[in-house]
Give the backbone structure.
Amino acid sequence: MRESYLAGGRRTTISAERGAIRRLAENGFDLGRRVLVVTDDGVPSAYAESVAGQAKEARLCVIPHGESSKCFAVLENLLAELVRGGFDRHDCVLAVGGGVVGDLAGFAAATYMRGIDFYNVPTTLLAAVDSSVGGKTAIDFMGCKNIVGAFHQPRSVLIDPDVFGTLPDRQWRCGLAEAFKMALTCDRETFEMFEGFDSLDDAKAAVEEVVARAVRVKKAVVEADEREARLRKVLNFGHTLGHAIESAAGGKLLHGECVALGMLPMCATDLRVRVEKVLDRLGLPTRCGFRAEELREALMHDKKSAGEKIDAVLSEEAGTYLLCPLAPEELLGRYRATFEEEL
Ligand SMILES: NC(=O)c1ccc[n+]([C@@H]2O[C@H](COP(=O)([O-])OP(=O)(O)OC[C@H]3O[C@@H](n4cnc5c(N)ncnc54)[C@H](O)[C@@H]3O)[C@@H](O)[C@H]2O)c1
C-alpha cells in the first residue's frame, strides 16, 4: 500500500509492506543526515537498530515504555540529545514504536528549532492504523492526557506488518478496536469484512487489508479536517465513555479495550448486536461491570455544569455516524441501558 495526504501545507506519504523496515530510503525516508531514532524499552531493540543502521549519522534514544513517558522530563531528555548531537534545522527525528513513542518524538520534532522533519515507523497496530497518521503530537501534563502538544505532520510513515509479530494479543486487539471504530463509523464494506472474522487469528491473517482500509479512512478524515473543527471528531467515536471507563478501571483495562466498550452505548440497538458479535469474536470485552455513577466524575472532567453538553458521536447504521451534543446525563443513560440492565 502506498498513500499520501496533504495537511498543514505538507504532503505525508504512508507505505505499508512486509519487510519494508529494512528499506526506508525506498519508502521516502531521507536519512542522509543526523537522525535521532527514538524507541522504548518494550519494543524489540532489533527494529530501532535496523533503522539506525540505515542513517548516515544516528543517535539512538531508548525511553522507558508506558504512558508515563509522555511527560516533560522525557521530552527534555530528547531535546537535550538533539542539542548535544548538534542537530540543526536540516536534521530529523524518527520514531520506532507505538503511540507513546510517536506522540512524544513527534512533539520533540515539532518544537526543536520551531520544527524539524519527523518520520514514523509505528510498531503497534494501534499506532499504524491511528496515531501515526494525522500529525497530532503531545505529552500529558498535570494528570491531563495530551494536554500539551502540537500539530506536526510526519514526512513519511512506514508500516511493516512483520513487526506486529512480536505484539502480545491484547495489543493486537487494541489496534483492531481502533480500526473497527473507523469501519463502524465511516466504511460499511470494512465493517462487513470485520463481521467475517471468526477469531483474532482470522483478523491477524488479514492485517495488511485492515491497515490499508483504516489508513484510507484516517487520511481522508485528516485531509478534510486536520485541526478537528468538526469531521475529525468522528475519530473520537467510543472515546468519551471509553476514557471514563479507562479511569474507572485504574489501569486494569487497556485503552483499546475501553474504546471497544465505549462504542457499544453509542450504537443503535440493531447495530449494537452486530458490533458485540465482532468484538466477542476478536476477544475484546463487551460487558462492563462499573456502575454509571462510577463514571460520572471522569465524564464531567472539565465540564463546568451537569447541563453542559459533550460532543458525542453516535451510529445508527454501519458505516455512518452522527455528531451530536449530549448532556453527561444522557451519556450515562445510554451506558446504563447497555450495561446495567444486564447486571
Ligand atoms: N496522535 C494521535 O492521533 C493518537 C491517536 C491514538 C492514540 N494516541 C496515543 O497513543 C498512545 C497509545 O499507543 P499504543 O497503544 O501504541 O501504546 P504504546 O506505545 O504504549 O505501546 C504499547 C506497548 O507495546 C510495546 N510494543 C510496541 N511495539 C511492539 C512490538 N512490535 N512488539 C512488542 N511490543 C511492542 C511498547 O513497548 C509498549 O509497552 C497513547 O499515548 C495515546 O494517547 C495518539
User: Anything to note?
Assistant: The pocket of nicotinamide-adenine-dinucleotide is lined by residues 40, 42-44, 65, 67, 70, 97-101, 103, 123-124, 126-127, 130-131, 134, 136, 145-146, 163-164, 166-167, 171, 174 (CB under 6 Å). The chain has a mean pLDDT of 95.
